[in-house]
Amino acid sequence: MTTRTGIYPGTFDPITMGHVDIIKRAVKIVDHLIIAVAVDTAKTPIFSLNERSLMVRQDVDNILSKSESSKVEVVGFEGLLVNFASDHKAGLIIRGLRAVSDFEYEFQMAGMNAKLNHDVQTVFLPASEHTHFIASRFVKEISRLGGDVDGLVSKNVESELKNYFGGKKN
After folding, report:
1. Residue 98 designated active-site
2. What does pTM read for this prediction?
3. What are the tens digits of pLDDT across the range 4-50?
4. What residues does each domain of the chain span?
5. Span 5-130: which CATH code?
């Protein structure tokens, strides 16, 4: 029997409840889920690759059941996602969609990825109604300004954000 491997890529700076929602649903459609934490990104992450990977692993272990969590691997990656997918024998890229604007970008990216490697398919999972408004950039801004991010991120991530922004001037 072949193992269906999917990759859920992202910056995860930080991981939010929106990401967790996609992970909970993605783990149900694959045998093995690789959460690929991006090294090279146009974004400027506030947390290091190791910090982001650790937060993702902790959220996966705390939120998923033990059997679901055991299906998840957290890996840092750089370079082309389709090459990473090939290297890990993954046939699916899983992407979450929050809004129409996400769809336009993700649809173009899926087309380009298909052109680069036709063996890798992209699956879109729409954000749930209770998470569609959550974006890491908003969470960081709210936290930076001293706002409450409870319910937007896990308690662990909330603590990491407070530690990061605690000594900084707003």
Report:
1. yes
2. 0.92
3. 999 999 999 999 999 999 999 999 999 999 999 999 777 789 999 99
4. 5-130
5. 3.40.50.620
